[in-house]
Amino acid sequence: MAAQILVASNRGPVSYVPREDGTFDARRGGGGLVSGLSAIGPDAGALWVCAALGDGDRQAVRQGVAAEPGVKMLDIDAAVHADAYNGIANSVLWFVNHMLYQTPLEPVFDAEFRRQWASYRLYNRAFAEALAEEAADGAVVIVQDYHLALVPGMLRELRPDLRIGHFSHTPWAPPEYFSMLPDDIAEELLLGMLGADRLGFLTWRWLKAFQDCCTTSLRDMDVTTHWPKDQSPSVRYQAHGRPHLTLLGVHGLGADGDFLRERSRRPDVDDRMAMLREQIGPDRRTIVRVDRTELSKNIVRGLLAYRHLLAERPEWHERVVHLAFAYPSRQDLPVYREYTAQVARLADEINAEYGRDGWTPVILHVEDDFARSLAAYRLADVALVNPIRDGMNLVAKEVPVVSDAGCALVLSREAGAYEELREDAITVNPYDVTGTADALHEALSMPPAERADRTKRLASAATSLPPARWFLDQLTALRP
Ligand code: G6P
């Protein structure tokens, strides 16, 4: 049956792990999109189109057992996928939007880049074709993120009847940075996205940056950007002698309060709390961070700030522990592996420098464990969220919801969540290590009553747009 509502993303809601007996274990993932989609119910005729990501997924698709209802997994050539995902999406588009290049040496847009870009096109085309095939007449399609930036334009050509949206979960770079991309690539990327009827962003700041990039990079297309009062902002432009209009909107994804409150009170989380308390030791404050080990998360500067705190304020020795959960991510890329190793080295150095019998200043955990993350949220006195740049950062929104007794939030002004949480957070410039150390001291010293008050207000701001509404708002905005 043709689908009425379609979602497309690189990573889907399920992955397949082969068992020894030749069958497959279908593992369901979480996240905003999964809970958002569940809001429309199983009978809404929704289909999630995603890519097979590893050998397990590929085998499951080929053997016809990748048959989760409402999910279509695409078996795209592994080399094409690797070029598109590791080469372009993670090493170029992610780096541009998070402004991560070390510019004296990077980026280099050479023949290898052009080759990978050709794969990125093929990969996007495979999605566009699958969506065109599966969508009912006039269906709504919401495409996710930088992996699939070309899909809206390609799909529009194949199926002009569809209502097409695209949502960016990342920041957007300002034009001075975005224009590092070769002009023809920048144009192809923007026009690909502008093929959508509507583009969604997490904050006004990213939306505005996207508009500015259109003005700068689509010079010959007579671009006008609008911010009319009480109406959607838009980008208008001329292409092939015809006028085009794409609406833009902000949907600041919030934490799933009901789910988090229920999930964080289950026995497995209580067990992890007991385990962590044992590791921390009695009568100590706890600074918690939970991240994927991702360059933009700024884990190294966070550890440097903690080291500076211990160096400058010996009164905290033996009275504080930093729980740093840094879960490995994108380990196919050498730069991520090096960063992961650097985080571990620095944690070891701090422990060697300051640790004593019975006190380990940094407890680093690298194995992903959601129940343990929730346990850490519950007992944290301080949460450190200091990304260099981040589309939103849901940890900043989840901690206040789950916290038992109130938790002071040290928050980077470069996180999307800053727009909504800044009033009750202690905000920092993520590059300023001594400033971050001062913020940690202020957070550790905050009186418990003030901490509890602020946490209540943070939790209410953090849950103002739960995933279900976030998704439904986008659907509503896309329907004519
Ligand atoms: C983060 C970003 C998303 C992105 C995802 C991809 O969650 O906020 O914008 O889609 O990473 O992660 P992956 O592990 O699939 O590379």
Beta-strand fraction estimate: 15-25%
Determine the structural class based on helices, strands and strand pairing.
alpha/beta
Alpha-carbon distance between the two ends: 23 Å
Low-confidence stretches: none
For this entry, what is the oligomeric state of its chains? single chain
> Roughly how many Å is the radius of gyration?
23 Å
Compute the number of helices: 18
**For the largest beta sheet, what order do the strands appear in spatially?**
5-4-1-6-7-8-11-10-9
Major beta sheet summary? 9 strands, mixed
Q: What sort of overall outline do the alpha carbons produce when their principal axes are compared?
A: globular
β-strand number:
17
Bound molecules: 6-O-phosphono-alpha-D-glucopyranose
Describe the structure in brief:
It contains 18 helices and 17 strands. With 480 residues, the chain is α/β, with parallel strands linked by helices. A nine-stranded mixed β-sheet has the order 5-4-1-6-7-8-11-10-9, with helices on both faces. It has a six-stranded parallel β-sheet with strand order 14-13-12-15-16-17, with helices on both faces. A two-stranded antiparallel ribbon has the order 2-3.
